[in-house]
Amino acid sequence: MTKKIAWITDSTAYIPDDLKNNPDVYVIPLGIVFGNNVFDDGIDLTTEELYRRIREEKDIPKTSQPPIGKFAELFEKLSIDYDCAIAIHVSDKLSGTLACCTSASDSVPLRVEVIDSKSMSYAITTLLYKGIELAEQGIDCKDIAVKLRQEADKSENYIVLGSLEQFYKGGRMTGTQYLLGSLLRIKPIIRINSGGAFELFERVRSEKKAYLRMIELFKHAYHQNNIKQLQIMHGNVRNKAEAFKQDLLSQFPGLDIVIGEISSAIAVHAGEGTLAVIWHNEEK
């Protein structure tokens, strides 16, 4: 008999409606910190409210990992109805969320397989979909986890930041990189590398050139791999995402492209105006 699996992730993941409505999917929110106030991402603070506060207030907000107690409480609850759980989280190089999940799982009766996505946003979504598909085939929880850890290495992403200042103040880039980018009006292309950490991938002179460069990078990957879908994630710039989608479709007619918005936990660091592309490289 197929074992019942609970799927757990955090609020950096993009959760479309079908996953929101899946009774076996649970999302643990990160905290958004404004001064002495902590808001649960996606629950107490919408992205619209976040952007408004950033525009109107001087202090740049920060994020905080979920407390271990939230994980432990959820695991205790899930142990009643589930045989095991698979938790897929934001890269442990970017947040302590995965470490908190692992610590909590050590003290509960539920078997929990914890997976480092080595990324965030739709890269996590892809792993959730793949895991659920494997579960529907009757594959064991442990074997699914092994497969998903392998799949995590196949994600590729490139990001054009909406705010260098927020990225710098959030500790995601050095003062020298920030100064150069500001003075020279450079638009850096950032990526989450294979180790799961942010890195400066390339410097370009304008946003337009950055978008063209991302199309070039996708074109190279597209010819080398089997890519079923591309995701465009944005920070309150749906019009730019739609325009970028049309630019891609002009070169890749029929390509399945999903547009989604980055979560507040990501927007705190990346800023309003951010645009990112994510895809999953499968062998041909």
Quick structural summary:
Keywords: Lipid-binding. This protein is an alpha/beta fold.
> How much of the sequence is in beta strands?
15-25%
The major sheet is characterized as: 6 strands, mixed
* Helicity level: 40-55%
Structural class: alpha/beta
When the domains are counted, the total is 2
Count of helical stretches: 11
Report how far the terminal alpha carbons are from each other: 33 Å
CATH architecture of the largest domain: 3-Layer(aba) Sandwich
Low-pLDDT ranges: 173-184
Order of helices and strands: EHEEEHEHEHEHHEHHEEHEHEHE
The name of the CATH topology of the largest domain is Rossmann fold
Radius of gyration: 19 Å
Number of strands: 13
Rough outline: globular
**CATH secondary-structure class of the largest domain:** Alpha Beta
Report the mean per-residue pLDDT as an integer.
Answer: 90
Q: Widest sheet: strand order? A: 10-9-8-13-11-12
Walk me through what this model shows:
The structure is a single chain. With 284 residues, this protein is of the alpha/beta class. It folds into 2 domains: 5-153, Rossmann fold, CATH 3.40.50; 155-280, 2-Layer Sandwich (Hypothetical Protein Tm841, Chain: A,domain 3). It is 41% helix and 25% strand. It has 11 helices and 13 strands. The chain has helices at residues 17-20, 47-56, 68-81, 97-105, 122-136, 141-151, 164-169, 175-183, 207-224, 238-251, 264-270, and strands at 5-10, 25-28, 31-34, 37-40, 62-64, 84-89, 111-116, 155-160, 187-192, 198-204, 229-234, 256-261, 275-280. The strands form 3 sheets. The protein has a 6-stranded mixed sheet, sandwiched between helices. Strands 2-1-6-7 form a 4-stranded parallel sheet, with helices on both faces. The protein has a 3-stranded antiparallel sheet with strand order 4-3-5, covered by helices on one side. α3 (68-81) crosses α4 and α5 (122-136) runs antiparallel to α6 (141-151). It is globular. The two termini are 33 Å apart. This is DegV family protein. InterPro entries: DegV (IPR003797), DegV_C (IPR043168), DegV_domain_contain (IPR050270). Keywords: Lipid-binding. It comes from Paenibacillus profundus. Pfam families: DegV (PF02645).
